[in-house]
Amino acid sequence: METKNYILKEVEYSDIKNIHKGLSDPDITKFYDVHFPTLEAVKEQMDWYEELKKNGTGIWWCIYDKVDHQFCGAGGFNSLQQEHQRAEIGFWLLKDFWGKGIMKEIMPRLFEEGFTTLKLNRIEGYVVSSNIKCKNALEKINFCYEGTMREFEIKNGSKISVDIYSLLKSEWK
Ligand SMILES: CC(C)(COP(=O)(O)OP(=O)(O)OC[C@H]1O[C@@H](n2cnc3c(N)ncnc32)[C@H](O)[C@@H]1OP(=O)(O)O)[C@@H](O)C(=O)NCCC(=O)NCCS
Fold first, then answer.
1. If we measure between CA atoms, which residue out of 37, 41, 49 comes closest to residue 76?
2. Closest atom of ligand 1 relative to the 107 alpha carbon
3. 171 CA distance to ligand 1 centroid (A)?
4. Ligand 1 mean position to 136 CA, how many Å?
5. Which residue has the least CA distance to atom 33 on ligand 1?
6. CA dihedral of 154, 92, 37, 10, whole degrees rounded to 10
7. Atom 13, ligand 1: which residue's CA is nearest?
8. Were both Cys, which of 3, 14, 20, 129 would link to 161 (CB 3.0–4.6 Å)?
9. Strand blocks (E) in the chain
10. Separation of 103 CA from ligand 1 center, angstroms?
């Protein structure tokens, strides 16, 4: 699938080097529960993408620039629950591609895929409350802030609050 400036291709095992480029960067994984410093370690993440597809619990895409086919990042759905027609959306970009409006351009295409092909009624996002860049980007695409789960996680001894955002099919388009 594609947008005006980008191509989205389902993540495959052969994308391991690109995924490692992103998920080994501490600035990208700062608000994540995962970080993969080595190629060996990132195999766990590649298995996770495979499991999602095998179990029908999600799907992720790699994002490529249309002009020079450069890998920019990844986005997709996980924790998909068909009976409740809902799934969690996720998204990350390599730092070189921050501040270019890429998330703003691609997320609506992911919404379309979610609400049509995946037959979702609700798309939700869990964002660490201090992840301002992400929250700024979500608000620009009309993702609805539903509330904050205070001190929802403990990470390296720190209590982490997490915000919930969502978009319903009835609000989409
Ligand atoms: C979350 C993340 C993708 C946001 O990236 P981002 O570049 O801030 O968001 P967008 O791609 O929507 O770009 C918006 C920015 O591009 C700028 N911009 C430049 N050209 C633009 C254009 N043509 N259209 C829109 N915005 C444009 C905007 O001004 C805005 O800049 P600002 O953040 O300084 O206000 C990025 O910070 C990231 O990968 N973080 C690590 C992973 C992560 O935390 N993911 C959590 C889930 S969201």
1. 49
2. 12
3. 23
4. 8
5. 99
6. 120
7. 101
8. 129
9. 6-10, 59-65, 71-81, 86-93, 122-128, 144-155, 158-168
10. 6
Residue 103 CB-density burial (10 A; 0-12 exposed, 13-18 middle, 19+ buried): buried
Q: What is the pLDDT along the chain (173 residues), one digit of tens a residue?
A: 999 999 999 999 999 999 999 999 999 999 999 999 999 999 999 999 999 999 999 999 999 999 999 999 999 999 999 999 999 999 999 999 999 999 999 999 999 999 999 999 999 999 999 999 999 999 889 899 999 999 999 998 999 999 999 999 999 97
Question: Which atom, in ligand 1's list, is nearest to the CA of 31?
Answer: 44
Q: Given strand 122-128, what is the order of strands in its sheet?
A: 6-10, 59-65, 71-81, 86-93, 122-128, 158-168, 144-155
- Given CA atoms 31, 68, 41, 118 in this order, what sign does their dihedral have? positive
- Domains along the sequence of the chain with CATH: 6-171 (3.40.630.30)
Q: Is 162 in the pocket of ligand 1 (CB under 6 A)?
A: no
